[in-house]
Amino acid sequence: AINTFSPVKAEPKATKIIDDWGAATEFNFVLTAGTNTAAGDIATPMPDGAVTDEETGAVSVTATATKACSTVSFGEIEFVKEGVYNYTIKEIDDGVGGITYDPNTHKVVIEVKKDGDNKLSAVVKYDGEEAEAISITNSLESKIASIQATKEINDWGTATEFNFVLTAGTNTAA
Asked: Which of 43, 71, 147, 152 sits between 20 and 30 A of 36, alpha carbons compared?
């Protein structure tokens, strides 16, 4: 007899942590399928919306974090067999000035087991730790500006000094 199970779902997530978003309006992450230990040589399942890279064959899906929603889901993944399913999450460097992006590739392992009632359950671990989401931290590089002024004049006459006033203009920082 072949054991068939009711599918179980898991939902990988990423949380963006940054103190100052600067000019950034969003951060993008990619979940990529890896190997699995499920019987029957099945492909590692992915959420709806996943695409296959024609050159590399990698199957991935993208999620976008914003200021309003810093924790994002890659979508639910349905599992029908026991096994260990491997994925990676990587942040996309969108090149926003001053932002230090996370260069690390984070490991996501979803372990699907059957319980005593012959039902499947799934546990998601990020970089070896069980959590609701992987936390990906960025920083904004502060910039300090130096302003200098030089007075050029043909005849100083009786003047011994000149004073300058620096006034703030419009702030366009996000």
From this structure: 71
